[in-house]
Amino acid sequence: MAASLIFLSLVPLAAAFQCLGLLFCTLLIERSHQRQLTLKAALEYNAALAKLRHVRRRVVCRRGRPWRFPGRTDQWWQNLFNGVLPEAEWKKNFRMDRQSFMDLADELRPYLQPSRSPRGLDVLSVEKQLGITLYYLKDQGSLMMTANAFGVALCTASVIVRKVCDVLVNILGPTYIKLPATEDEMREQVKHMENKYGFPQAFGCVDGTHIPIMQPLENPHDYFSYKMKYTLNVQGTCNWRGLFMDVDVRWPGSVHDGRVFANSRINKLLKEEKLPMMYKELLPGHDKVPVTLLGDPAYPLLPYCMKEFPSALNNEQVIFNNMLRSARNPIECAFGRLKARWQILNKRIDMGLKFVPNIVYACFVLHNICEMKGVTIDDDIVAQQIAQDKLTQPNTGADHRYSFNSAEGTYVRNVITAMYKEHLPQ
Fold it and tell me: Distance between CA 163 and CA 289 in Å, rounded?
């Protein structure tokens, strides 16, 4: 009886504890919810505050935050552009006269025109961007000298040079550097070459040159050339006027000229006869011969690539060698004028390896533009450049893996030699 009474008295007490537990849990849930709401509100407040600070920062930048270093000035450029300096300064500093410079700027304008800026008119015009690039390429100076001359930061000069060179390569390159695409174009090249140098069926000359670069981070030994420096081996093909028709700027300096040609685009086009071959009968009773390139002993002897006899055994072979050497003169002069104009090609280019090919190719494009517009370069400077290149050219000999003599090439060379023999006095 007593136990029953005790049990009955404990029932209300347990119910009370249960109610208190439920109430406590409810309070904990409500407090956790309020804490989450408070945290969310704090995060939203911080995000709004950060956005406000960003907007204020932009407003301050627009209103008057300086973006040039104190003391920088482009007064020299302004004096030149506005005609205060003599007009001769244009050709001295940009390798072209004012009219040619402005014509080139108009061609580049759709791709270099500056967009709207919060700084208003204080942006780099197309003319100034082109001026920075040509000033950098025209001699053996540096980006720092170019930046100081035009009153811009070093990083700005670097970006502008790469940007303009990229446009020159991708937009103007296909227009100013191109191979003959039709029979009429090929016939014209062959005709001028034969009329000027007396070598039949030749439409151009091929040769290589080395451009110094900084030591690459990856595989530097591949770029160390016979010049005892890190270089790129650049192959160029030009016509009788010294205009480049094809340029290959992708091989390390240690690669032989013959290997560069063997893997080049122009070799593939000639081999697969994707260019107008213009076969012609030079002597009665002999097969017709195709159009050819003229190379030095480092190149292979192919039906479309001629080189001289290593040792002349008779008069007609001597004449063949002399005629071929004379007809190869345009490529030596073209490289001389190229490097005399854009002397950046004679020094170690102070940019990363991935940017160098575009800079080098842009110099070839600019060379053709100057040649087509009749903008000349001093003959004494060109002669000095050619002499310097010859002094640094070693007698390394031919690489027999790539400079072999094919049977078809030997036949074509013999036909041309026999043609010269027909014209020898008896």
Answer: 45
Q: State the Cα angle at 99 between 96 and 104, rounded to 5°.
A: 75
SS3 401: coil
Three-state DSSP string of 141-176? CCHHHHHHHHCCCHHHHHHHHHHHHHHHHHHHHHHH
From the list 60, 68, 160, 73, the residue with the least C-alpha distance to 118 is: 60
| Residues 237 and 268: beta-carbon distance below 8 Å | no
> At 203, which amino acid appears?
F
Q: Are 128 and 139 in contact (CB under 8 A)?
A: no
Burial of 197 (0-12, 13-18, 19+ CB in 10 A): buried
Spatial contact of 162 and 351, defined as CB atoms under 8 Å apart:
yes
Residue type, 349: I
pLDDT digits (tens, 9 = 90+) for 240-255: 999 999 999 999 999 9
Q: Which two tokens stand for residue 167?
A: 């446009």
CA dist., res. 406 & res. 124, Å (int)? 55
Residue 112 near residue 170, CB atoms below 8 Å: no
Summary mean pLDDT of the chain: 87
CA distance 262 to 283: 30
3-state SS, residue 327: helix
- 407-422 and 315-327 helices cross at what angle (nearest 10)? 100
- Reference 287, options 279, 277, 299; nearest CA is 279
Q: Which of 59, 61, 134 is nearest to 93 (CA)?
A: 134
Q: Say what the pLDDT of residue 140 is.
A: 78
**What is this structure's pTM?**
0.82
Q: In whole angstroms, how large is the CA radius of gyration of the chain?
A: 36
Burial (Cβ within 10 Å: 0-12, 13-18, ≥19) of residue 46: exposed
Q: Which residue has the higher pLDDT, 98 or 53?
A: 98
Backbone angles phi, psi at 306, to 5 degrees: -100, 145
Q: In what order do the strands lie in the sheet with 244-252?
A: 244-252, 231-238, 202-212, 292-294, 305-306
pLDDT over threshold 80, residue 63? no
What are the structural domain ranges in the chain? 75-175, 177-393+400-422
- pLDDT tens, position by position, 64-113: 444 456 677 889 999 999 999 999 999 999 999 999 999 999 999 999 98
